[in-house]
Every structure is written in C-alpha cells, then in structure tokens.
Design goal:
- The chain is α+β, with helices and mostly antiparallel strands.
- It has 17 helices and 20 strands.
- Strands 2, 3, 4, 17, 18, 19 and 20 form a 7-stranded mixed sheet that branches. It has a 4-stranded parallel sheet with strand order 7-6-11-12, with helices on one face.
- Helix 1 runs parallel beside helix 17 and helix 4 packs across helix 14.
Length: about 450
C-alpha cells in the first residue's frame, strides 16, 4: 500500500499552523455558554446537565484552518456527490449493502452528513464519511460562547446572527426532507430517535433539537425505537402520529428487534426517515473508501479524470482486510489505521502501531478496512506544558453536497473520545487573505 498523495493547499498554511501552536487569544466563555444553553436556545438546567454528564464536550480553544483547506473541502464534497450519482457506483456499493439499503427512501436525501478530515501542514485527507453526524446543534451553541482577549482577533468571533442563521438552515433542511418525500401539508411532528436516548452521551443535543423544533410549532419528542408502534398505516408514539424521524440510531440497517415498527413504516413509506439506510450504504460504509481511493475502480466507473485526481489526492488509500493480504498488512501496520465496515465514533478502530496480536486476529476474521495513516492536525491549548498538545480532526456538516458548518474535535489518544480535559468540540476559524495580520496577532498570546 502506498502513501496517499499529498494535496497542495496553497498559501497561508504556515500562518495557520502558527496560530494553532501559539495563539491563545480566543477561548471558551463559560458564562456565555451557560446563557446559550439555558436561555437563548436551550432550557433551564441544561448547562448543569452538560457539566455533570459530559464535562469534556467543549474544548477551551478554537482551531484555525486556511481558506484553501475550506475551499478544497467544498470541492471534494462535490466530487464525492458526483461519483455517488453514477449508476455504476450505486449498483456496485448497493450490491454489498443490506437489502433494506436498496429500498427507495422516498425522496429524502439525509440530514447531517459528516465529512471528517485530517489536516496537518501540507497534508489534507478525508478519512471517513458519516451519515448521522452528531454535534451540529452543540456547535451552534458553542459559537455563541467564544471571547477574544485582544482586538486583533476579535473580528473572528462569530456574530450571534451566524449561529441563528445556522439554526434556521437546520430547520429548513428538515422541512426540505419532508417536502422531498412528496408531502404537501405542513410538517407537524418529529421523533428524535436513538436507543435509550436519555443515557446517550449527546442527549443534551437531543434536548436542543427538541427545543428548536418546538419553537417553530413542530411537535417534537425524544424516543427509543422500542416505544414506536406501526398501526393503521402510520407510525405512532403513544397517541401521536409521527411524520418524520430524525434518526440518530447506529443500527444503520434497522435490523434490531426494537426497530421493527420503524422498519415497517419506512418500507411502507409511511414515515420520512432521515438519514436512512440507503444514505449510509452509499456514503458511510467504510468499504466505499476502497472504491473512492482506487484509480482503476474510479476509471472503470466512468469518473472523469479531474475528479479522479482530486479524490486520489484527498482520500487515503484503503483496502479490505482478508486472508490473502493479512500478512502483508501486518507488516505495514505502523502506517495503517484499521476500521470496521460499519464503524462509528472511533469504536473498534485501531492504529496499526498500537495493535496487539489478539486484536489483529479479530480483525483478520473479517469486516475491516485498512486505511493509510494520515497524521491529524495539532492544536496547543496553552504554552505551559507539552501535554497540552491536542490532536484534532475537522468535521464538515453537509446537506445535499453543500457544507453547512465546520467544527473541530480535539482529543488525545487514538481517536476522538470527549474524555480529555480541554478537549471536545471546538469552533473553526477560517484564515483570510490577510494572513500576515494573523501572524502578528499571535504575539499577543
């Protein structure tokens, strides 16, 4: 396996790297965060819930990225969309997907795709795509709680209207999903669905979504799929019929017994499910990264040369682990990252240089891909200790192929984990053409 080609990201990267290593002028304002969670868009008690249940949800510092990186991310999203639209690609990936993925989803595109990137110096890599990416509403809150200590960077603080516009965009996206499914009447009810939702790590975000929908006259409930029932051609929760399900489940094929009612309603197109099994199969199955990083397969699918070049320069080479290549991959493991086909949240994913023989034997039984390792970006939280260096990945929230919002996740260890003090979701500030002014601003840290 060869290393992924490194994409040139243009002028300004050095200044951005300097900001991420030396700028401490912008930080999380705890009181502003409390206000946002409890009065602006949240509810009383939500701040304390976050502090008690997920104290490392929000990072203390933002992450800086170059305008060239942002532009390249947008171009890559379009490139992926163009491949997914090809009948040959859809036939290929749906051929190894669960049967339910071949069911027509009724028009819905899927909300909150998450394109996750590693950016460091000159490197640029799309490491995976998710179709039920969490954190969007939390990042809208986070945008309201940043404060700069110096005038040089004060203009980078997002205006309150920015977060408000994103929330309006979120609401419009759900209305669009409803309309795309062919409904002429207004959207009246939404179920925010996950297994045992009250005990999910991101349950506070479910409450934020519920609050948002309710503010605009939509009846919103948070539910477990086991609480739903399929009756009289409608999906019900208690005495209320459900129009749309905002799907936060990680049972991507709805195969579990608790999903029986939801599955029946979805197959009958009696409810709008977003995101849905077909979206996961087309975008988020890790086997798709094998296709998108293979020059011969892209050529065979009819992908234009310019698009192929962008994909190959931006997606780390990925291969399926099987008995025939296991010995070769074990020998190269220090340069590889191993992920399960249907993985999410970094679960059961391993850096090759950290593998034990026992874990490797499990990987070799099947269901894994090996991806060329790409170093993540690094963000310093303070200049007091080397231990305050955090890795970060960058998430582009997207809908219909367009970037809606950028967020970073700061962490220490192998993958994002929301367990390290100072880590968690972080706002992303884009560099402007005046990068020299950025460089000068660092001196006030």
């Amino acid at each position: 396996m060869t290393d992924t080609p490194q994409a040139s990201v243009g002028e300004g990267v050095d200044s951005i790297e300097l900001l991420n290593s030396d700028c401490f002028c912008i930080s999380l304002d705890t009181e502003a965060l409390r206000t946002a969670l409890e009065s602006e868009i949240g509810a009383p008690g939500l701040f304390e819930m976050v502090q008690q249940r997920c104290p490392h949800l929000f990072a203390t510092r933002p992450v800086f990225v170059s305008a060239a990186h942002v532009q390249r991310m947008a171009a890559l999203l379009q490139a992926v969309e163009s491949v997914v639209a090809l009948p040959a690609y859809r036939s290929l990936v749906l051929g190894y997907a669960p049967e339910i993925a071949r069911h027509h989803p009724g028009g819905a595109r899927g909300v909150f795709f998450g394109y996750d990137f590693h950016l460091a110096a000159e490197s640029f890599a799309l490491i995976e795509i998710n179709t039920n990416a969490g954190g969007a509403m939390l990042n809208a809150v986070l945008a309201r709680a940043q404060r700069a200590c110096c005038a040089a960077l004060a203009d980078l603080e997002p205006a309150p209207a920015t977060a408000e516009a994103f929330e309006a965009q979120i609401l419009a996206m759900f209305h669009a999903e409803w309309a795309l499914a062919g409904h002429g009447r207004e959207l009246r009810s939404i179920a925010i669905l996950d297994e045992d939702p009250q005990n999910q790590y991101l349950y506070p975000e479910f409450l934020l979504f519920q609050r948002l929908f309710q503010r605009y006259g939509i009846d919103a409930v948070i539910a477990d799929p086991a609480d739903l029932r399929w009756q009289g051609g409608r999906l019900w929760l208690a005495d209320g019929a459900i129009d749309l399900v905002y799907n936060r489940l990680t049972d991507f094929s709805l195969s579990g017994t608790t999903c029986a009612a939801l599955r029946a309603a979805y197959l009958a197109q009696a409810v709008v499910l977003t995101p849905h099994p077909q979206a996961h199969a087309l975008y988020a199955d890790k086997r798709n990264l094998v296709v998108l990083s293979d020059a011969d397969q892209l050529r065979a699918l009819g992908v234009p040369q310019e698009t192929r070049e962008l994909l190959l320069a931006s997606i780390p080479t990925t291969r399926i682990v099987h008995a025939d290549n296991a010995e070769d991959l074990w020998g190269q493991r220090n340069r590889l990252f191993f992920k399960p086909f249907g993985g999410f949240g970094g679960r059961a994913a391993y850096r090759g240089d950290k593998l034990t023989r026992g874990v490797w034997e499990q990987i070799c039984t099947g269901g894994y891909v090996a991806q060329a390792l790409v170093t993540p970006g690094v963000r310093a939280q303070s200049d007091e200790s080397p231990r305050n260096m955090f890795k970060f990945d960058l998430r582009a929230y997207a809908y219909d192929g367009l970037v809606q919002w950028l967020a970073a996740r700061l962490y220490q260890g192998q993958t994002t984990n929301f367990r390290t003090p100072g880590g968690g979701f972080a706002p992303v500030y884009e560099g402007t053409s005046d990068l020299f002014a950025f460089r000068e601003a660092v001196t006030c840290g």
